[in-house]
Design brief:
With 155 residues, the protein is α+β, with helices and mostly antiparallel strands. It is 43% helix and 30% strand. The protein contains five helices and seven strands; from the N terminus they run αβααββββαββα. It has helices at residues 4-8, 27-43, 50-78, 117-122, 145-153, and strands spanning 15-19, 80-85, 88-93, 99-104, 108-114, 124-131, 135-143. The strands form two sheets. Strands 1-2-3-4 form a four-stranded antiparallel sheet. Strands 5-6-7 form a three-stranded antiparallel sheet. Helix 2 runs antiparallel to helix 3 (50-78). The radius of gyration is 21 Å and the shape is elongated.
Length: 155
């Protein structure tokens, strides 16, 4: 399965910049997995105790939750593409149910970037693109939102 942008490029159009959801979305799942490992290791220090069973059960639950969160984050990141070409902005999300947004660069009125303190430190944020007669589109949690904005506004 190829990238969506490769399917929709027009003759003479080139991709100038590509981004996707920032990798920070893996953090909740990884934290759950780390807690599962910690609970498992802690359970080894108790012998035949009811606390051992509680820690092992908690470890199994945390491991399952962590695995689900990591897989969900991976799938979300895998199914989202955001590109700036020489002619337009293209955003696609979804796998079976697909939602796309495309706006010609000459129709872009403004590009706003919203970043929290953590987003500024680690490089993610939300971008809102407003178009002349096109409405607005918000793209959440993308990596390097300022660089993305700069590629849109520097056409």
């Amino acid at each position: 399965m190829g990238r969506y942008i490769d399917e929709v490029l027009q003759p003479g159009e080139r991709v100038r910049y590509s981004t996707t959801i920032h990798g920070i979305i893996y953090v909740p799942g990884v934290v759950c997995l780390a807690l599962a490992v910690a609970a498992f290791v802690a359970s080894r220090s108790f012998q035949g105790d009811g606390l051992t069973l509680l820690l092992l059960g908690g470890s199994a639950v945390l491991a399952a939750i962590g695995a689900i969160l990591v897989l969900r984050a991976w799938f979300w990141r895998w199914t989202v593409e955001t590109d700036v070409t020489t002619m337009r902005v293209v955003h696609k999300e979804g796998f079976i149910k697909r939602r796309t947004f495309e706006m010609n660069l000459d129709k872009v009125e403004s590009v706003d970037v919203d970043q929290s303190i953590a987003g500024r430190i680690f490089g993610w944020g939300d971008v809102t693109i407003r178009g002349v007669g096109e409405g607005e589109e918000r793209i959440r949690m993308i990596g390097s939102p300022l660089e993305f904005r700069n590629h849109i506004t520097a056409h």
